[in-house]
Amino acid sequence: MHIRTLTGGFAAAVVVSLSLTGGQAAAAPSAAADAPAAARVLTYDASGSAEFRSAVDRGAAIWNESVDAVELRPAATGQRANIRVVADNGWPRALTTSLGNGTVYMGRQAVDQGHNTIRISAHELGHILGLPDRKPGPCSSLMSGSSAGTACTNPYPNAAEKAEVEGNFGGALVGPAPTVRAGVIVD
């Protein structure tokens, strides 16, 4: 448990005064404090993803369903995208330039070996969102990638992977609002 004292003599005086007179102190709700933080929007350009276009769109939708701090949207025509997605004949990979920016390669080599295209897409987008490979790993870990085997088709991040992305983009889950007791915030 962490305890912090209120700063500002006025707030402490009001709390103490009201408690001595039997009144109740209540903080006025703040719209800014109560409103959820807006998601950081990242755009992606999948125009070069060839036969993987629907898998890329589904991979982005899975991340949008899974986290609140970031949202992946297709780039508008002529808009410079944060993420470029292209198809090639190599192994799938992501080259990041910074958090939320880079290029995803949807490599046909893994698909030819039997790996699931949507899992590949979600996994590679996970790299752009700041997640490392976690190999070897179970199918329940999206970032275990190919080490989970070709039978693994799970395209969803697990709880730890979701939490890491939330933290990367400033949307880490915050505990309940602190309780104020006689000028002390207890959380």
Overview in brief:
By secondary structure, the protein is of the alpha/beta class. It has helices spanning 9-21, 31-34, 53-66, 108-112, 117-128, 159-168; strands spanning 3-5, 40-48, 70-74, 83-88, 93-98, 101-107, 179-181, 184-186.
Q: Care to count the β-strands?
A: 8
Over all CA atoms, what is the radius of gyration?
23 Å
Report low-confidence residues grouped into runs of 5 or more: 1-30, 172-187
Strand order of the largest sheet: 3-2-4-6-5
Name the assembly state.
single chain
How far apart are the first and last residues' alpha carbons, in Å?
6 Å
Helix content: 25-40%
- Note the total helix count: 6
Structural class: alpha/beta
**What's the pLDDT, averaged over the residues?**
81
Approximately what portion of the residues adopt beta-strand conformation? 15-25%
Succession of helices and strands: EHHEHEEEEHHHEE
Largest sheet: 5 strands, mixed
Give structural attributes.
187 residues; alpha/beta; 6 helices; 8 strands; 22% strand; disordered N terminus
Describe the structure.
With 187 residues, the chain is α/β, with parallel strands linked by helices. A 5-stranded mixed beta sheet has the order 3-2-4-6-5. Strands 1-8-7 form a 3-stranded antiparallel beta sheet, with no helix packed on it. It has helices at 9-21, 31-34, 53-66, 108-112, 117-128, 159-168; strands at 3-5, 40-48, 70-74, 83-88, 93-98, 101-107, 179-181, 184-186. The protein is globular. Strand 5 (93-98) and strand 6 (101-107) form a beta hairpin. It is built from 6 helices and 8 strands, in the order E-H-H-E-H-E-E-E-E-H-H-H-E-E. The longest helix has 14 residues, at 53-66. Helix 3 (53-66) crosses helix 5 (117-128). Helix content is 31%, strand content 22%.
